[in-house]
Amino acid sequence: MLHKATVRNVNRALKEVNSFQWEGEFKLKAKEALKKILEDRMGEELVQYIGVESYQRDDKRSDYRNGSWTRHLLCEIGDLILEVPRTRNKGFYPSVLDAYKRRHRSIDKVILACFVLGLSTRKAAKVLAPMIGESISASTVSNIAKSLDKEVEKYHNRPLEDKYRFLFLDGVVLKNKGAAKVQRRPLLCAYGITHKGVCEMIDFHSSQGESREAWEGFLNDLYKRGITGKNCELIITDGGKGLHSALEYVYPKILKQRCWAHKTRNILDKVKKKDWDLVKKAVQKIPYAKNRREATKAYWDFADKWRGVYPNAVKCLETDIEDLLTFFHVKEDRLWSKIRTTNAIERAFREVRRRTRPIGVFTNRESVERIVFAVFHHLNVNWENNPLNEFTHKD
User: Fold this and answer.
1) Most buried among 10, 86, 115, 269, by the most CB within 10 A?
2) What is the pTM of this model?
3) Residues 228, 392: Cα–Cα separation, whole Å
4) Cβ contact 220:250 at 8 Å
5) Which stretch of 4-8, 35-39, 188-192, 243-247 has the lowest confidence by average pLDDT?
6) C-alpha to C-alpha distance for 1 and 322, rounded to whole angstroms
7) Residue 75 bridge partners (DSSP)
8) Exposed (0-12), middle (13-18) or buried (19+): which is 283, by Cβ within 10 Å?
9) Cβ atoms 387, 198 nearer than 8 A
10) 338, 152 Cβ separation under 8 angstroms
11) What is the pLDDT of residues 131-177, one digit of tens each?
């Protein structure tokens, strides 16, 4: 159902479509040709249904022709007015058309692709009107988007394999319409990298907040569906207290790695702007060290130099230094750049924000889940075909 679309190839396709002249006599001829093809096909099906050609007599015929009725079909080149054959007993319906539908399936797919690419229902309707020559209401786009609901449900309930070597856990905040005001609700998300280097957005959960209870419910669901963590070496997080408390309950035996990008920002928040560059350079010597021993030395150099000037900044680092150096336990140093921050899952979040920015505020949770699922689906399809080289390289 979902197109494997990216912004780059869709933009390229739209440029080609826009450069192609559909107007004038060509478009009219194309519509006439398609109309004839469809009507001829319906005529062939009618002969097969009745059992005889027109004006032939046969006592074994199943039904009788009874004129035709007019049917509108919206397709890529505009609105086709078709003459659909009718029978006396009303038992014939051509397979060319889907019963009670007024749009070709390809139009629904185009509309759905526009929604997936981040256009609001109103903007999608406005963009598609000149392309297909007919207006489409925002409610029509919304109803077509609802076809994703079953896919979303399957995604949330599918069995999971315990195949992830590294798990990344984080949340992204999106705006929803509430009863009284706009609410900012986080989506708790799990991203994994398998032992074969395949990345995957495993699942997400709409929550009221990022408390221990919220994360514990989400993690327990992942555990019950198959991710027991027996094959997981490391869980990478942004350092949220609620998440870490939940991890100690659900996955207590798996090593935890706190994100260096988040920690560096927290440290710089406690430093005067004029010293940002110096402090940042000193901090970065720790995660970029060749081994844990050199990283520990770089930490003490930083602490000795800046403790007197910025004690809170040093304390911020000191509190979590053990969890910040966990990634050194992974023997392949080529993987360290991937697992010492939550950048991997943050890149997926940037795609979600980019796709949802034109929409603004979502009307309900279901509309949020549709677009997020669609974004994650396309990312997963792309990642499945392009595993990370660092993980597939053999020592």
Assistant:
1) 115
2) 0.70
3) 24
4) yes
5) 4-8
6) 46
7) 78
8) buried
9) yes
10) no
11) 555 556 666 666 666 767 888 889 999 999 999 999 999 998 877 66
